[in-house]
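# step 3/5: fold
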Amino acid sequence: MTELPTTGFILIDKPIGWTSFDAVNFIRHKIRQATGNKKIKVGHAGTLDPFASGLLIVAVGKENTKKIDDFKNLPKTYTTTLKLGATSDTFDSTGIITESKIDTNNQKPSLRQVEETLSSFVGKQLQIPPMYSAKKINGQRLYKLARQGVTVERTPNEITVYSTKLINFDYPDLTIEIECSVGTYIRTLAQDIGEKLGTGAYCQTLRRNKIGHYIVEEAIKITDLKSN
């Protein structure tokens, strides 16, 4: 087990199935148990979806939580596997999946098409946040509206994709590494890549490997934490 710091910054490897809030709440509870300080502040830099895993930076203590934005604005690197030939209403594996009506013999993209498509997404661009996201519009979380069947107009955000790297392509699975700016939704990129390939796609798995120069290999598995 790993000793839990009661101040500073902690690199956490968030497991699949946990929300970022779950991770923060778990750490806050552990620290309050250890110190008796019921007012300890704990926050995180950069939300990860429950279906995603990987690096989450957690700040402990009032002075450190004030510095969270310094980490939020750093570039991030993800590994994701896209499922081609289908779409999802949430753009990921947790949503309602709809198979695309394509002839895989004639419409299955070639390796060259995949590489060219991935390259085309490198650079600055405008991206519309997905409805199933924690982003707030008029004080309401988009995912709460989406669950009610409500769709609202969203303002596109300027993002930058610094690089895309093909890891593996075995149709219908496409695994890639993406380095991108703050505010980038990998699920939306997955949807857009599938649309450009003409097959449809959704984000099947997602793992955050890096935030700035901080890497997931240096992170602590949250289940290995113990209080002092």
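# step 4/5: annotate
The first helix runs from residue 20 to 35.
# step 5/5: archive (pending)
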